[in-house]
Specification:
By secondary structure, the chain is α+β, with helices and mostly antiparallel strands. Helix content is 27%, strand content 46%.
């Protein structure tokens, strides 16, 4: 059996998960990342995407995150999300409101660099929307 470690998924609204897990797959900004027990200390930013958690007690949970950062230590991982919801709570209205808000942010962006970063986020969010809620 794989070693377990403590994982916490926190958003400003609530603590979504605090449990012993064997593996967490996170959408790091530079690419998908799998965290396991005894992982090297790392901090990374998170892009919009799916977090997949394998519980030590058995089973898997999935959460949609909308950015944030992760603090990874050999003994645990804390993901501080800008916003996060369990996959089963995701609906079309949630994505439509986030996409509309991001489009407004792009229009109001003070610099080209900021606009480019927001456009990348919009692309990632649109892709995530299509992969979770096809059609």
């Amino acid at each position: 059996m794989a070693d377990s470690f403590q994982f916490e998924l926190v958003s400003p609204e609530r603590l979504l998960l605090s449990e012993k897990v064997t593996e967490v797959v996170i959408p790091a900004t530079l690419g998908e990342m799998t965290v396991m027990a005894k992982h090297a200390p790392t901090m990374t930013t998170i892009k919009p995407g799916m977090v997949t958690v394998k519980l030590a007690a058995g089973g898997t949970k999935k959460y949609v995150v909308f950015g944030g950062f992760a603090d990874i230590l050999p003994t645990g991982c804390t993901l501080l999300a800008e916003s996060a919801v369990p996959q089963e709570e995701v609906n079309r209205d949630l994505f439509e409101s986030r996409i509309a808000s991001l489009r407004q942010d792009i229009t109001d962006a003070p610099t080209d660099e900021h606009r480019t970063q927001l456009e990348l986020m919009l692309s990632e969010l649109t892709h995530l929307n299509k992969s979770i809620l096809p059609g």
